[in-house]
Every structure is written in structure tokens, then in C-alpha cells.
Queue: 2 jobs
Job 1
Amino acid sequence: MAEPFANSDDVEAVWGELTVAETVTVDAWLLTASNNIRLIGRKRGIDIDAFIRGDEILEQAAKDAVVESVRRRLSNPRAIRQRSTNQGAGPFSNTSSETVDSSAASGLLYFTEGELMWLPLPRKGRFRTIHAKSGYYK
């Protein structure tokens, strides 16, 4: 089984200390996010592990993309779309609400275009075949 491109220590470096339960969850998310990058690479005709092997910059880019994906998920682990709070009672109450970005509220591990800019674009066919009939046919 393929290893994740990052580990929970990398997430702690940008997020802060994780509890034991969060560490278990983050480790699972790291593997999922890493495999998602591998699938994106496969769709583009690239073996990501071979592509980044030995290149420190590409290895760091893969790790950064995975960590950022998991950090977004940690910021809204229950995939809440909207939050409302009430404080106080009677005429002195304070109500506030907040709408969370719909991408973060999806609860998915995703990557932005900028996080994957290091990946080559999908290969396009260089040659096309065109079939044409000449003359008049009935």
C-alpha cells in the first residue's frame, strides 16, 4: 500500500497540537488526500510516486498540497454549512450567524488549482484522423 505524502507532524506544524483521536483521523485523511493526488495523476497519465521521487521540490509540493487539504478539513470537521449563536436572554441577547465557505462545508478533501500547479497538464493527442468522403453520394 502506498504511503501518504505527509504525516500528522506535518499537519501539527501548520495547525497546532492534535489530540490522540485527531491524530488517528488526520492520518486517515492524509492517506486519502495522497491517494486523491495519485488518482489525479493517473487521470493525467502520470505515476505521481515516480514523478516526484528524488525531486525535493516536487516531494515538498505534494506534501504541502496534502497538508493544506487536511488543514481545510480540520477547520470544519463536521462539515457545518452555517453556524448561529445566541448569548443572553430577553432584551439583552446577542445573536450572530456565520456562513461557511461551501467548499469547506462539503466535508471533502480537495485541492485548489494553485496547490496542484506542479502537476503536468493532461496529455493531448498531437495527431487527429479526419475522414472525408469526396464526390456526390445518394
Job 2
Amino acid sequence: MSARLTVLAAIEQVAKEQNKTLRTLTDDLQLMESGLDSLCFAILVARLEDKIGFDPFSASDDVMFPVTLGEFI
């Protein structure tokens, strides 16, 4: 499965489990307007870390935190 499909599937699963209503998932969607809250993002990042084997936010000293879904992917 591609990285994009993996991320989108994980977002949809977390939203479903946390009873959140997602906005349409487009590359320019602001993450803070996606319908997920901070707990959802924490769950999402932890699950993605398990899938890819490392935490992308701690893999480098100069990490840029994503603002949009496209940047996150």
C-alpha cells in the first residue's frame, strides 16, 4: 500500500473509532480543520510509527510540522 493510502486509511480509522466527522480529505485541507482533535492526532502518529518503524517527527533535528494534509502525507 502506498504511503498516501496508508495515511488516509489510518486517518479514517481513527476518526471512526473516536466518533469524529472528517472533512473531505484533500491535500490542501488544514489539519486543524480536518475534524480530528489532538488525541486523534496522537493516536494517528503512534499507529503510523508502528507501521513505518520510526517516528518521523523525531527522526531529524530540523523537523517541520505539517499544516496541511498534503504536507503530513
